């Protein structure tokens, strides 16, 4: 290994270790913050640089094996990205078939898949047009696509952070289980909501083996088209599974995840109940709930997820991704304005030079 490559290897290794230490310290303090995902990605980048620069140490065979593995991973990634639009369209049609033509999740997934299918053709058409407005649109699409893609990668990294540091790992012995509601059907608990309640019951049963009896908070208000509040149906479900009424607190005013968390913790404070709390929701909803709880400075609230049907997951995760984007609205508006100004300026300057 040459001296220059050796210096690069040592530098990359040092940055890898430093990034991992920063990730460990930050995630141990609060794994709900998106900065943990950013640190994970930084550590992954420097680890990759370390492996690339270290490959000459293992001779030609080692370099060949490394290049083959890297090539396979790259081809798999490109194939997955190429198939993603088609898979989204198929999944959207499956959701619409199972849940009806008015399913917002199904329509969202279908629209996203169609948009991604059309995107290459639209961008290619813009790139071939030498008018300044076409160049501006092409640059704008490139900038915004890069930003949204980067944010998506951060979200995916946050799922890994949650798996390593969050959920039950963070709150092994909760004093309170806050079950977040979702829309009942004809006043009854549908499968999606039942999975959340069953997950809470599972955690409660695990705690019972240690002689602990956590309280339940069922949180969810009444929609304009619903015969009763979500929380009432949820409490009835728990009671039918053997949970005594004195262990159930009904919070029946919330209309959003933010209100679920704020109103539930307020009720608990009013009753003098504290300690570590575990919010129970669907698996696709965990990251957004984690981020929101951190934003609200609810230091004792962490999140665990219930199983989500496979066909429902892509659209649900896409909706959550959009939801987290809205939590950073000022930042995203600022980035959008910057992208527009930069795209127009670059296109105008290019047209003037041409």
Automatic annotation (TrEMBL):
Start and end residues of each DUF218 domain: 175-323
Q: Membrane spanning segments where? A: 6-25, 37-59, 65-95, 107-127, 133-161, 329-349
| One annotated GO biological process | Gram-negative-bacterium-type cell wall biogenesis
Q: Matching InterPro entries, A to Z? A: Cell_Envelope_Assoc (IPR051599), DUF218 (IPR003848), Rossmann-like_a/b/a_fold (IPR014729)
GO CC annotations on file: plasma membrane
One Pfam family matching this protein? DUF218
Q: Which UniProt keywords apply?
A: Membrane, Transmembrane, Transmembrane helix
Question: What is the name listed in the Swiss-Prot or TrEMBL entry for this protein?
Answer: DUF218 domain-containing protein
Which species is this UniProt entry from?
Answer: Propionibacterium freudenreichii subsp. freudenreichii
Organism placement in taxonomy = Bacteria, Bacillati, Actinomycetota, Actinomycetes, Propionibacteriales
